[in-house]
């Protein structure tokens, strides 16, 4: 049987449910949009996509840590920033999780 | 983090415990590994950003489609547009399941409404049915 070895595709068990609270997801959706018209199924799809996204981001970040020469047990802020910088479809997060830099580099830039 | 603007006046985020649960499930292959607390909070912020991103993309797609309401189709197209196309098959499956559940719930609701009786009357009718069934059972003894 052909096995899908894509490291990025997260696993998802099939049940008509999602762990994240739909109400919160809907609040976030509506905070940004001008029109309040979002179908319930669409909100559900977005909640589901978000859950998969958490899995994706957590896995990618975990892989970043695993790939280090001295892998740590505790995943840190800079690991997410690394994962974001390296992954194409995470580019939109560049402002949310900017690469941290050493203070002396920052001083040099000014 | 309190000086961050979210474009709304309420606290727009996801419950930390739920997100933590999802993270733990993902990392179960490597049980010693944990996410530092601020890292998990960053993850949550990334999610909020993600939701906003998908919503606005889906919104644009819906408008181009001359539809006033964002539907599942638009979300699917948005995901593909934003390079998250791998999510689409799983989402379609689970969303179909969810739609079925919703339809069942509505069916049960309308059946009760369609009977045209109030809840009390329905309960009384049910008790009468029980009583007549018990009588029939006793008579047959």
Automatic annotation (TrEMBL), chain A:
It holds the Pfam family CBFD_NFYB_HMF. Residues 19-84 form the Transcription factor CBF/NF-Y/archaeal histone domain. InterPro entries: CBFA_NFYB_domain, Histone-fold, Transcr_DNA_Rep_Reg. It comes from the Eukaryota. Keywords: Nucleus. It is found in: Nucleus. The keyword Repeat does not apply. GO terms for cellular component: CHRAC. One of its GO terms (molecular function) is protein heterodimerization activity. PANTHER family: CHROMATIN ACCESSIBILITY COMPLEX PROTEIN 1 (PTHR10252:SF54), HISTONE-LIKE TRANSCRIPTION FACTOR CCAAT-RELATED (PTHR10252). This is Transcription factor CBF/NF-Y/archaeal histone domain-containing protein. It comes from Clohesyomyces aquaticus. The lineage of its organism: Eukaryota, Fungi, Dikarya, Ascomycota, Pezizomycotina.
UniProtKB/TrEMBL annotation, chain B:
Pfam families: CBFD_NFYB_HMF. One of its GO terms (biological process) is RNA polymerase II preinitiation complex assembly. GO terms for molecular function: protein heterodimerization activity; RNA polymerase II general transcription initiation factor activity; TBP-class protein binding. Keywords: Nucleus. Part of the NCT transcriptional regulatory complex that acts as a key regulator of ergosterol biosynthesis and the azole exporter cdr1B. The NCT complex binds the promoters of genes linked to azole susceptibility, and especially represses the expression of cdr1B transporter. Forms the NCT transcriptional regulatory complex with nctA and mot1. This is NCT transcriptional regulatory complex subunit B. It comes from Clohesyomyces aquaticus. The lineage of its organism: Eukaryota, Fungi, Dikarya, Ascomycota, Pezizomycotina.
